[in-house]
């Protein structure tokens, strides 16, 4: 039993996240720093581990408090159900507006996938509570779970206010995700620097962002390539003024104010966009706010022309961070939230416990005189990570298979190596994939995801009855796993049992109303049953959840075309073509619309494009 604090609290917290290989700023501010601060409280242990950890199942179930950081894994459904039975607190953490991730982001396609997004929304609603980084995220996600709390990003370190007199450095540092933000202000900054030869622009970030200022004289700009967070802190320590531009996109509006905190902590005057993330900035007191790029040059004039004002604002920003926004000041508040939520679930006040076996594993890196225990990577986790990179980033399946087999040999009782191996082998060797999935289920009989994939690979081999058995097992393991019910629906539909297919699709949507693929298949099945009105509603629901669906835009367009709603149908076909420019059938139907509206030239152009894309349509349109 771990030692207790003054309130008699003894808890083990587990923080579960995707692999944090590069240890970037988001990992530091949302995971490492808060966990380190919590671990320094008496009676508290915090185990930090990734989705690839070979100890994940035990930790997910045994922790007194489980925090799930933006993970979209269906195998969490039975885990959360078991934790609810045990009256153990489970919290979902949202640290970014994931529907707004940009295409350059490596995780963009994962979060864009409608199945992954549906699972995440379901997990948000299923967990006992939700924690977010800012109030705008809380506003956007409270409809999925009203028990939502804001824990803002904080600082763990603070720098100096001392700055060299010359050169006068105005700068920015950050991720490539700010390219468009910087592009908007670049012309105005260039113009300002040309009028102020005593000032220098300093940029730390991607080369593309620095190249936005190619028209500025070389002697008036300096470039620092991306580096570690410590490198970034050293960089901003040199700045007199730190810029924080933002475009009012959905993603940006849900950002934290950490840029303001970083500048303030290291003595740079924060100059921030007047948007929601920077609502803590007091204009002219702890920083400066600007609404448009045109406001930036006169604001910089004001700062440069009044050194006393500049020093005063920098000092107040520094004091604000030091007195109100240090991580150590907020650990007790966060712990109180966990304790209160835990008592709500377990009014009898079940005591927490220490997970004793953690001390025996080599990857546990306990911080000295602390309860903070981050789990590092062993060769198992490294092989799994490298295999996923080979498979999904580089499309090198052979290399991925080698990595997964290596992980399996090192950890024969761990289910993930077999799960990933099966997925990598499905196309080239379905028999071997099936064997790997079966072994994964033996290692972890509670993996609804593995059971669903086992059903899929059996279908590929024409093993209909065995596929049905696997899909039913997936639904039994996790009755709220929508994919299992949809897979059952499609399997029984192939035998002609339409009523059972409809029933299973309804089960799927009752299990997870955010699962758009089931609405799509329901719409198609209803169309076959001549239930056009119900089919229309199904496609509309699918599009409300996943507007980027080519199929739903096209099929709903077909219904509206037949109903005479030509303008609405035209919009849907154009959206489908934006997403899939080679969809010949959409051009065929656009030609019909244009012809009905007397737009002869456009009708002929659409027809010609359809024939170019699909020559066998000649004589049919």
Short summary:
By secondary structure, this protein is of the alpha/beta class.
Kindly describe this structure.
The protein is of the alpha/beta class and 621 residues long. Among the domains are: 11-155 and 328-372, Glycogen Phosphorylase B (Rossmann fold, 3-Layer(aba) Sandwich); 168-324, Rossmann fold; 549-621, Tetratricopeptide repeat domain (Serine Threonine Protein Phosphatase 5, Tetratricopeptide repeat), CATH 1.25.40.10. The protein has 28 helices and 13 strands. Strands 6-5-4-3-1-2-13 form a 7-stranded parallel β-sheet, sandwiched between helices. It has a 6-stranded parallel β-sheet with strand order 9-8-7-10-11-12. It is globular and about 80 Å long. The N and C termini lie far apart (77 Å).
């Amino acid at each position: 039993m771990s030692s207790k604090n003054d309130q008699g609290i003894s808890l083990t917290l587990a923080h579960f996240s995707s692999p944090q290989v590069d240890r970037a700023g988001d990992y530091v501010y949302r995971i490492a720093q808060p966990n380190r601060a919590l671990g320094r409280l008496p009676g508290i242990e915090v185990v930090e581990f990734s989705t690839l950890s070979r100890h994940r199942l035990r930790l997910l179930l045994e922790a007194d408090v489980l925090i799930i950081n933006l993970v979209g894994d269906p195998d969490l459904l039975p885990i959360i159900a078991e934790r609810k039975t045990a009256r153990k607190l489970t919290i979902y953490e949202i640290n970014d507006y994931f529907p707004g991730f940009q295409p350059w982001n490596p995780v963009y396609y994962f979060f864009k996938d409608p199945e992954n997004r549906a699972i995440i929304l379901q997990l948000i609603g299923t967990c006992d509570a939700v924690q977010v980084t800012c109030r705008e995220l809380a506003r956007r996600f409270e409809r999925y779970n009203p028990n939502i709390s804001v824990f803002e990003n904080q600082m763990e370190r603070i720098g100096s206010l001392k700055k060299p007199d010359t050169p006068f450095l105005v700068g920015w540092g950050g991720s490539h995700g700010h390219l468009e933000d910087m592009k908007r202000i670049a012309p105005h900054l260039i113009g300002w620097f040309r009028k102020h030869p005593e000032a220098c622009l300093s940029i730390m970030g991607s080369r593309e962002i620095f190249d936005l200022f190619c028209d500025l004289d070389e002697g008036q700009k300096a470039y620092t390539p991306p580096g570690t967070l410590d490198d970034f802190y050293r960089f901003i320590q040199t700045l007199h003024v730190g810029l924080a531009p933002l475009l009012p996109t959905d993603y940006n509006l849900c950002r934290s104010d950490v840029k303001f905190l970083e500048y303030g902590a290291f003595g740079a005057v924060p100059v921030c966009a007047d948007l929601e993330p920077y609502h803590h900035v007091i204009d002219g007191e702890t920083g400066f706010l600007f609404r448009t790029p045109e406001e930036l040059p006169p604001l910089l004039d004001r700062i440069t022309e009044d050194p006393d004002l500049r020093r005063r604002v920098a000092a107040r920003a520094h004091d604000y961070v030091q007195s109100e926004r240090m991580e150590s000041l907020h650990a007790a508040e966060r712990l109180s939230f966990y304790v209160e939520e835990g008592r709500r679930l377990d009014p009898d006040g079940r005591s927490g416990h220490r997970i004793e076996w953690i001390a025996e594993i080599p990857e546990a890196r306990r911080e000295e005189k602390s309860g903070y225990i981050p789990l590092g990577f062993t060769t198992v986790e490294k092989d799994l990570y490298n295999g996923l990179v080979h498979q999904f980033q580089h499309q090198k399946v052979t290399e991925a298979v080698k990595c997964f087999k290596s992980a399996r040999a090192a950890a024969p009782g761990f289910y993930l190596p077999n799960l990933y191996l099966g997925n990598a082998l499905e196309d080239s060797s379905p028999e071997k994939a099936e064997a790997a999935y079966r072994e994964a289920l033996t290692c972890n009989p509670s993996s609804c995801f593995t059971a669903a994939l086992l059903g899929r690979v059996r279908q590929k081999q024409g093993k209909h009855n065995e596929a049905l058995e696997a899909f039913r097992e997936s639904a039994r393991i996790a009755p709220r796993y929508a994919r299992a019910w949809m897979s059952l629906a499609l399997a029984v539909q192939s035998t002609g049992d339409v009523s059972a297919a409809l029933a299973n699709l309804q089960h799927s949507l009752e299990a997870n109303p955010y699962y758009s693929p089931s609405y799509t298949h329901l719409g198609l099945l209803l169309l076959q049953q001549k239930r056009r009105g119900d089919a229309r509603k199904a496609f509309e629901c699918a599009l409300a959840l996943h507007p980027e669906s080519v199929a739903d835009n096209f099929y709903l367009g077909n219904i509206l075309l037949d109903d005479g709603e030509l303008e609405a149908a035209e919009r849907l076909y154009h959206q489908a073509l934006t997403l899939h420019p080679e969809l010949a059938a959409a051009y065929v139907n656009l030609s019909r619309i244009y012809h009905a509206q007397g737009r002869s030239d456009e009708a002929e152009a659409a027809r010609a494009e359809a024939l170019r894309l699909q020559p066998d349509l000649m004589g049919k349109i």
